[in-house]
Amino acid sequence: MTQATYNGVLNLAAGAFLLAAVLIVWRHELRATVRLLAWQGLALAAIPLTEGVYHHDAALITVGAVVLLLRSVALPLLLTRAVGTEDHERRESTPLVNTTTSLIITAGLTVLAYAVTRPIIALDPSPATRAVPAAFAVILIAVFVMVSRRRALSQAVGFMMLDNGIAATAFLITAGVPLIVELGASLDVLFAVLVLGLLTGHMRRTFGDTDLAQLNELRG
Amino acid sequence: MSALAAVATALQILGVLAGAPLVVGGMRQVRARLEGRAGGGIGQPWRDLRKQLRKQQITPRGTTVVFALAPAVVAGSTLLIAAIVPLIALGSPLDSAADLFGVVGLLFLGTVALTLAGLDTGTAFGGMGSSREITIAALVEPTILLAVFALSVPGRSANLAAIVSASALNPGQLVSPGSVLAFVALAIVIIAETGRLPVDNPSTHLEVTMIHEAMILEYAGPQLALVEWASGMRLTVLLALVANLFIPWGVAGAHPSLLAVLVGFVAITAKVSVLGGVLAAGEVFIAKLRLFRVPELLAGSFLLALLAVTASYFFATPTN
Fold first, then answer.
1. The pLDDT of residue A219
2. What span, in angstroms and rounded, lies between the C-alpha atoms of B25 and B44?
3. What range does the domain containing A205 cover?
4. Sequence-ordered list of residues with C-beta below 8 angstroms from that of B315, at least 6 positions apart, any chain
5. Residue A167: which residues within 8 A CB-CB, separation 6 or more?
6. B-chain residue closest to A25, CA distance
7. Top-ranked range on mean pLDDT: pick from A79-93, A123-137, B265-279
8. Mutate to test the interface with B, among A5, A17, A28, A103 (most CBs of B within 10 A)
9. Which of A36, A182, A189, A213 has its CA 20 to 30 A from that of B199?
């Protein structure tokens, strides 16, 4: 793989990664956001795979394959099963912040991410570190999604995005974490999503809804 | 500048003049066929124009020179854009006089002329249409400027010929994130600017939904013909511009040969036909957005343009 292809693929993956986050902010249908999350997982997996192929690092390729399987296949599948079948359950109907404002806020967060990561890029300017702002922007956007959505599942999507962003930052800054650390983190996320799925199902059976704003009073 | 470059520019203007009604007719025909209707044929807009141009000139009572001049301003500014942008060949005589920002300015000159004409009639629909149009235009303008900025980063110039030749020399950057995002943002903005679905329905005359049609409701006869011709030309020029910015092959150089000019003409005709067909086919599957959700779409496109700028600026330039 030549230097130019490596640059191009890495930038394309980082761009797609950020774009998926933006589209998750834009869309309100839960199934669509879960599908976008799968695409984001694909873009995330492309980062270690590209670096592994470029640096001839078999461990990194293995990590990339694990990430691909887990984040773009297994986790979205689990989340899709947790989406309710009723009409009012499928959509984030009354967001706390309207879409136009959230998109403008997202734009602000992206610029902020580029501003605060400049010192990190200055430490070691390489194609990989230059894509760090995109990963960092995804972290900020994920936090915003988590605080501005009402449905339990959207918040789970925000949580997954946060984890994707952190993983992408790690891959881009350190050219990959050790296999055992990545496996541990992935297993953690898998269990978190399993528990979240169970909790969502339980909430729906008990309250008939997953709107977290209604959970501010005790029920017998 | 060679004589053939001037010929190419003249051919651009004539091509846009003659081709615009055909583009509109072709798009209507694609739409009609996909909806299971026979359609009026590709030449129908030309027949409509001929009919309108033969009619008597009527000026509504109480309108001023603003109303009378607006169609000419729209058509004139669009023709000027057609002369500036590199559609067939790069070396237009006007190329050094205006860059992409100038083109955007000319585009809005036409929009503003029409909105003023809508207000000038003093009717309820004219004012309503103008207010809607200017709301959309105010949201579209920053997006266009940002997308243009993103496109001018790789070529290190906002000059259109420089951008097109830079991307033709280095096709790899066309699939870079910045370029792809700028394309999506620009596509949404152009759909809004030319009043196509899902922002505005070009074939509606229903009071509550029309935007562009509401402004020009008072025009009749030759003036209506001019306005409709001009809006067709805007669509054609913008489609051709997007085609050449992102698919720069086939455009003749600054000192073209006769063969290169002909190849450029055929290439741009093919690109516009394909792009128009795709746009029309896409419109079959979508409904018009509610007016209050249009800002959402345009804010999204603004964000994409902003991401395009950040991507092409931060990924491309070394920071040391």
1. 61
2. 6
3. 3-216
4. A11, A14, A15, A130, A131, B176, B177, B178
5. A44, A67, A182, A185
6. B300
7. B265-279
8. A103
9. A36
8 Å CB contact between B240 and B85 = yes
Domain ranges of chain B: 3-315
**Residue owning tokens 């003049």:** B17
Tokens matching residue B12: 């651009």
In whole angstroms, give the CA distance from residue A48 to residue A51: 5
Q: Which residue of B has its CA nearest to A14?
A: B177
How many Å apart are CA A184 and CA A193, to the nearest integer? 14
What is the C-alpha end-to-end distance of chain B, expressed in Å? Answer: 40
B138 by DSSP, 3-state: which?
helix
Q: Do B306 and A26 touch (CB under 8 A)?
A: no
* pLDDT confidence of residue B1: 53
Quick check: helix, strand or coil at residue A152? helix
CB B167 within 8 A of CB B248: yes
Nearest Cβ partner for A11 among B176, B303, B318:
B176
Give the three-class secondary structure for A211.
strand
Map residue A151 onto helix, strand or coil. strand
- Gap between the Cα atoms of B38 and B249, Å rounded: 35
What is the overall mean pLDDT for chain A?
82
The structure tokens 């956007």 sit at A141
Residues of chain B with confidence (pLDDT) below 70: 1, 313-320
The tally of domains found in chain A comes to: 1
Q: Helix, strand or coil for residue B89?
A: strand
Backbone angles phi, psi at B133, to 5 degrees: -60, -40
- Residue-wise pLDDT tens digits, B183-209: 888 888 888 888 787 777 777 777 777
pLDDT at A12: 83
Packed helices B294-310 and A3-26: angle between N→C axes, nearest 10 degrees? 160
- Ramachandran quadrant class, A176 (left: phi over 0; alpha: psi -120 to 50; beta: rest): left
Chains A, B: CB contacts within 8 A come to 77
Structure tokens at B22: 């055909």
Tell me whether residue A174 is exposed, middle or buried, using C-beta atoms within 10 angstroms of its C-beta: 0 to 12, 13 to 18, 19 or more.
exposed
Amino acid identity for residue A116 in this structure: V
